[in-house]
Amino acid sequence: MKPKFVALLCLFSFCSAADTVGYRGDILYFKGDPANDSEATVYIKDGYLIVKDGRVVKSGDYISLKDQPVDNTVDYSGKIITAGFVDTHVHYPQITMISEYGEQLIGWLNTYTFPTEIKYKNHHYASQEAAEFLDQLINNGTTTALVFATSSPVSVDAFFEQALKRNMRMISGKVLMDRNAPAELLDTPQSAYEESKLLIEKWQHKGRLDYAVTPRFAPTSTDQELAVAGRLLKEYPDVYLHTHLAENNQEVEWVKQLFPQSRSYLDVYDKHGLVTKKSIFAHSIHLNDDDFRVLSEKNANIAFCPTSNLFLGSGLFNLDKSREYHIPVGLGTDVGAGTSLSVIQTMDEAYKVTQMRKAFTDKPEEVHSLTPRENLYLATLGGATVLSLQDKIGSLTPGKEADFVVLDPLAGPILSERNKQAKNIDEILFGMEMLGDDRIVAHTYVMGKKMK
Ligand code: GUN
Ligand code: ZN
Questions:
Q1: CATH topology for the 20-84+394-450 domain
Q2: Ligand 1 near 333 CB (within 6 A)
Q3: How far, in Å, is the centroid of ligand 1 from the Cα of 372?
Q4: Of residues 388 and 4, which shows the higher confidence score?
Q5: Ligand 1 site, residue 113, Cβ cutoff 6 A
Q6: CA 145 to CA 387: how far, in whole Å?
Q7: Confidence at residue 18, expressed as pLDDT on a 0 to 100 scale
Q8: For the segment 243-270, what is each residue's pLDDT rounded down to a tens digit?
Q9: What CA–CA distances, in Å, run from 429 to 49, 383, 440?
Q10: Cβ 308 under 6 angstroms from ligand 1
Q11: Fold assignment, 85-386
């Protein structure tokens, strides 16, 4: 059958997940980090991705694979097929309060964030917002995310129910916070422990879901509550730890006053056993060398959230330093402090942060500007590595879960004009990263199912 005709059939949902489907297009993904491995990129002009039962069976060049048995071929010639994007730090309850004016971190939390999060005790409201959030992730090509809910267990149930319905690989958890916020949001060490335990038992490993113990940040938890977080990690060694770290100077000073016995902000977490290979620390901007060393020794991970860091005026993350210490880094949109759910727009700002660092150093030649490939790696396999999911998602090798996106390098008038002149894949990719948004995401597939 002619590929175009089959594509039409699939459009009208005649393709089922059990079918073997071949997708023709330009394939791009990574086998490793292109920052330290020149062979890490796989780019196949006119490639073929074969998917069955939600998994990648094969990927390679179309001419060599075209005689493989498939039930259908979908023709995406001229488009780029890559792994679904991974958002390593985002808050689903904050989509309604994205881009609120005029505050930095602490003022922004008190003025806008906390009042918004109180609403998520209502299951109906939380479900409606979780559904909208997940649909917008799909629209933006994001297939996996590490997600803050609120301190209400209702918000976690609502989120996981919606994620399960869509069969999306999602990680979330109840926020732990027992001080320095409105009473309606506070738990206690006891309730934090009991509620988290129930949620872990209910959701961990259900479908494609995983649980993250989620203390909001050191200022909103007492030592007793951070000890509870440590206890949960000991009782459930495969759950994640997700929190914020050293985002803003005023916050760092506050942590010094609240925890005078700790060497640093990171040390507050470390004292409670919260720095592990399954820990993800959002921001990590204002750290010293000892902190980088501890993160590295414990194989912990960082979520770099450039749109948020610029919006709240938090600072410029030092990607070079995390590379020097071999700390895995992924991209986080951090909505609502971040200004877009698009990981593509996040790549744009990530590049600009590396550019700005050059402007604020005595040794600009030592600051490395993110290359287009390194940036896409952060958005895909790099993010998957941060979440210990590099064997399941993040690239298009055989056996991987078929979470992928089809990108249109000619979407929109400006990008289209620009990319028609581009001489190679790096130029095309850079154009998409700097100028793209949800309009370049032509299609999003979750476990082989077309969702956009
Ligand atoms: N630190 C503590 N809570 C938050 C939050 O909701 N967003 C950001 N960006 N930082 C935080
Ligand atoms: Zn955040």
A1: Urease, subunit C; domain 1 (2.30.40)
A2: no
A3: 28
A4: 388
A5: yes
A6: 9
A7: 72
A8: 999 999 999 999 999 999 999 999 999 9
A9: 20, 18, 11
A10: yes
A11: TIM Barrel (3.20.20)
